[in-house]
C-alpha cells in the first residue's frame, strides 16, 4: 500500500474520531506533511541521479573520444543509468541477452545481432526505430564517444 494512501485513509477514519472528541487530527496532519516532504525528496533524488548519469556518460564519451586508444574504451551507462557490461537486457522478441564487455572498436563491430539490438535500445531508448545491424553498431560506437571519422 502506498504511504500516501495509508495516511489519507487514516485521516478519513480519524475525522470521525476528531469530530467525536478524538485527538489524532494534528498527528495525522503532520504525517501527511512528512509524507509530502518524503515524496518531494524522492523526486529530487531521482532528478539528481538522472543528472549524474547524464554528466558521467558525457565525461566518459569525451574520454573515449579524446583520451583512450581504440582498445581501451570505458563503459558508458545506458539512458536509464544501468551498466551494460556483463548484465542481461531485453533482446529481440523479448529474449534475454547478456551483454559482453565491449572495450574496443573491434569488439563493437563483433557484436551479434541480438547484442547490437540490446546495446542500441539501451543507448537510444525503446521508441527509436531500429536500424540495420551495421548502422546499429555505428550508432553504438557514437554512444561510446567514437564517431564516423574514427571508424
TrEMBL record:
Occurrences of domain Mug135-like C-terminal (ranges): 64-146
Family label: Belongs to the UPF0612 family.
UniProt name for this protein: Mug135-like C-terminal domain-containing protein
Amino acid at each position: 500500500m502506498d504511504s500516501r494512501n495509508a495516511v489519507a485513509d487514516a485521516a478519513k477514519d480519524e475525522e470521525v474520531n476528531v469530530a467525536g472528541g478524538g485527538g489524532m487530527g494534528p498527528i495525522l496532519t503532520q504525517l501527511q506533511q512528512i509524507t509530502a516532504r518524503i515524496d518531494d525528496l524522492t523526486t529530487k533524488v531521482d532528478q539528481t541521479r538522472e543528472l549524474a548519469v547524464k554528466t558521467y556518460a558525457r565525461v566518459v564519451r569525451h574520454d573515449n573520444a579524446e583520451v583512450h586508444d581504440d582498445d581501451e574504451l570505458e563503459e558508458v551507462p545506458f539512458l536509464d543509468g544501468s551498466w551494460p557490461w556483463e548484465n542481461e537486457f531485453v533482446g529481440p522478441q523479448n529474449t534475454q541477452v547478456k551483454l559482453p564487455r565491449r572495450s574496443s572498436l573491434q569488439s563493437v563491430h563483433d557484436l551479434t545481432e541480438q547484442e547490437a539490438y540490446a546495446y542500441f535500445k539501451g543507448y537510444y531508448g525503446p521508441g527509436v526505430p531500429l536500424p540495420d545491424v551495421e548502422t546499429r553498431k555505428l550508432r553504438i560506437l557514437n554512444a561510446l564517444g567514437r564517431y564516423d571519422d574514427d571508424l
